């Protein structure tokens, strides 16, 4: 298993997509700079401009991360490397789990970086000394949402395995976003965790999601969704 | 001789289409088995089933004397394979690609990668595989298949995209592996000349059925002698052959060329009858069927 994990990590390390993910994760810093510029100019509708920027960023980041996830899965099919992979004396499951582990790590790292960038941006913008309670709350939420975000990995894996080509995978992911977009009400910044519990989400139109972590039904649907998706991945990622 | 690979009634259906139908073949240790077939004959599907990539609809595969159930994978450490075009991670170098394979095959010796690369004459450079030519990728595919020193090599069209020098090199390499290291080689190809030069035995697959399995000595015996005639009017010559000489086993291969498979000892009589019948004979020579002729004859029915 360690050999498989090391191989997966190596494939990722040499990929140029890691730089795209890194750049995408640091965009909150640019947003903070944009806010500074808006303040300096005394822009009349500053909040609306910030909201719009954040929405575009959220959408772009989501696609970037799907691109990263699909890179791990659908490229194996696209480049024909899945055949030599399955021609090795290993069961397909360790490959699936190694790929999921790498995807989870990358997504979590990207999410963490985003939050760190947002936090740094907030610090830059803050006029007075920052509140210790705010920092604790902020970091707590960061860890929580990073964990939730990691649950996206099997969903992305599923798209990658089913579509088998990166471009098709991205199109499907984009379709999902467009489909879910009208349901979302307030803060697209939390788009990522909201996309995961599709079942729960579709039942509660207008669901804000900011209290997702503290609602039991949300967690149950997350768990069910996670297990179902993982099961599907296991069923599909095999020699046929 | 020990049977390394054998199949019994191997079938694969894709919906209503039967890609492979009742294939029974045997490959013995140390031999080079050529698997011949036209495009779409079922070569790759058979190879996919042999390497455990595709589940057979029916039939069995036995490897190293043991029947293999679909989903088993331990025996794969004894097999090196190229299935379809060899796939590589384009953003990695040749060495990095092979090193991933080395880890997955459980080869502890790191030097194995360098040995495999030099065996196929691949320079260990920083160039990424994404920039490799088709021929280079093919070589790298063979290098990967050989990396863990397998007992059985299953190669699907291994010389595709190689230049003549590369083809010769691969031929020498595979021959050497079989003769010196007793490695069994199962290779598919549609390049008949290559198979003819390399294989100890040949299986011909057509429309998913293994229609013939022969060794080269048998092939030698089976290859038919014929008389090739270059005439001015092949249609008229055909008429004369049938009605004046009673020859029915002949083929018109080109508008002015015929091949006669019987009464070869009566060349003078054939010549005389054609000339007196008003057909000028430009050339007459006795020849023997090549593997290509044999293959085409075997697979032309129903085309």
Description:
The complex is a heterodimer of chains A (240) and B (303). Chain A is mostly helical. Chain A contains twelve helices and no strands. Chain A has helices at residues 2-13, 17-25, 27-41, 46-78, 82-86, 92-125, 132-150, 152-163, 166-180, 191-195, 198-203, 216-236. The two termini of chain A are 22 Å apart. The model of chain A is unreliable at 182-216 (pLDDT under 50). By secondary structure, chain B is α/β, with parallel strands linked by helices. Chain B has two domains: 3-220, Rossmann fold, CATH 3.40.50.300; 224-298, Alpha-Beta Plaits. In chain B, 34% of the residues lie in helices and 29% in strands. Chain B is built from ten helices and 15 strands. Chain B has helices at residues 43-50, 94-104, 111-119, 134-146, 164-181, 192-198, 216-222, 234-244, 267-276, 291-299, and strands at 3-14, 17-23, 26-28, 32-37, 58-63, 66-68, 79-82, 152-156, 184-189, 201-206, 209-215, 225-231, 250-254, 257-260, 281-288. In chain B, the strands form three sheets. A six-stranded mixed β-sheet of chain B has the order 7-8-9-4-10-11, with helices on both faces. In chain B, strands 1, 2, 3, 5 and 6 form a five-stranded antiparallel β-sheet that branches. Chains A and B meet through helix 1 and helix 5 of A and helix 2 of B.
Q: What topology does this entry show?
A:
The complex is a heterodimer of chains A (240) and B (303).
Chain A: H1 2-13, H2 17-25, H3 27-41, H4 46-78, H5 82-86, H6 92-125, H7 132-150, H8 152-163, H9 166-180, H10 191-195, H11 198-203, H12 216-236
Helix pairs in contact in A: 1-6, 2-4, 2-6, 3-4, 3-6, 4-6, 4-8, 4-9, 6-7, 6-8, 8-9, 8-12
Chain B: E1 3-14, E2 17-23, E3 26-28, E4 32-37, H1 43-50, E5 58-63, E6 66-68, E7 79-82, H2 94-104, H3 111-119, H4 134-146, E8 152-156, H5 164-181, E9 184-189, H6 192-198, E10 201-206, E11 209-215, H7 216-222, E12 225-231, H8 234-244, E13 250-254, E14 257-260, H9 267-276, E15 281-288, H10 291-299
Helix pairs in contact in B: 2-3, 3-4
